[in-house]
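Instructor's aside before we start: the two examples that follow are unrelated to each other. I chose them only because their records fit on one page, so don't look for a connection. First example below.
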Amino acid sequence: MAKFIYSMQNVLNIKERLETQAKTEYAEMNNRLSIEEDTMRRLVGRLNSYEMQAKKATTDKLDIAEMIRCNNAIKLLKDQMTQQAVRIRIAEKNVDAAMQKLTEAVQDRKIHEKLKEKAFEQFKSELNAQEMKEIDETVSFNYNNRDD
């Protein structure tokens, strides 16, 4: 029996590897975004802590040095949060780009899998036609060579 060999199997294999790479890149970008968001949450927590310390320094006993220290820390944290927000936006754009790349890789792989399926169907129909031809030839030979 004939064996099906897909002529573009190497291209399909490459598309599958590209899809795997795109999945890995997407996971890395998603992980990076998660790390950046966690960093922002920690900064917000520290900011809240310093704001509470500053408020406490004004309510109990007026501690000017503590208020100045807290206010300076708050300014520094707000600057860090602004920078972190930029990092988050960049990470989000990277995730979107990786997702787009992954989507394209999946589409390419699916296209080549469909082409392989169509080639296999074509192969099966050609094989079936060849078998029918052989059956017809056998029947014709038997009919022509029968003893009357």
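Example two begins here.
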Amino acid sequence: MSHKTILYSVRIGIVTAIFSAGYICGSLPQHNANAQMGDFGSNLLKQASESGGALRSYTQLGTTITDMEKNVSGLQKNIDTLKKVKTMLGGK
């Protein structure tokens, strides 16, 4: 074999080895990191809502939206339950 053929073969081998190593490392299971912050977020919002100015308004708005979202989720669960009962009773 000529010198060029050997050089190209080595280059292809290196590229193949790098690709294979990346594929193997990418296919390994990944573990998600979960922070155990507890009530850190709620305490932070509470402190921000006690401050004055625009920050207080924004935190109150965020808290209100979160409460509304919880209420809507609860209502949706009740509606789904009512639909199941209606279906069981023979209604459409």
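The helical segments are 3-27, 40-50, 54-88.
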